[in-house]
Amino acid sequence: MGLIALLIFVLTAFFGLIALQIFLAKLDNIWVGLILPIITFGFSLIIVLSIALDNYYGLPVIPIALAFFTPTVIMLAIYIACKGKRNKQRALEKMSVQDLE
């Protein structure tokens, strides 16, 4: 029962962060959409560097780095996708305003 509850909690947190990133990336301020990628990059960097510098257990650093930097890549992909859609919408609005003039 405890494992199922943990899995539900982790999945809820993951999808909640994805929804929050989509919301932040759609805002007009470009820096707001980069908050979560910067935070996840910082945490990933701290974890990977601590493992690399104090490799007590003999763990391979590259697979661990790939695993911990994956959320950063996902957050950046969401940001870039939302930014691209926003730029297309602005271009269409600009074209429609020019057509009216």
Notes on the protein architecture:
Helices cover 82% and strands 0% of the residues. The protein has 101 residues and is mainly alpha-helical. The chain is elongated. 11% of the residues are buried.
What topology does this entry show?
Layout: H1 2-25, H2 35-53, H3 61-100
Overall mean confidence score, pLDDT: 87
Question: What is the 3D shape?
Answer: elongated
Distance between the termini: 65 Å
Beta-strand proportion: under 5%
SS elements, strand count: 0
Strand count, sense and barrel status of the largest sheet are:
none
Structural class: mainly alpha
Regions with pLDDT < 50 over 5+ consecutive residues?
none
- Secondary-structure element pattern, one letter each: HHH
Amount of helix: over 70%
* Rg, Cα atoms, Å: 19 Å
Number of helices: 3
Main traits of this protein?
101 residues; mainly alpha; 82% helix; elongated
Briefly characterize the structure.
The protein is mostly helical and 101 residues long.
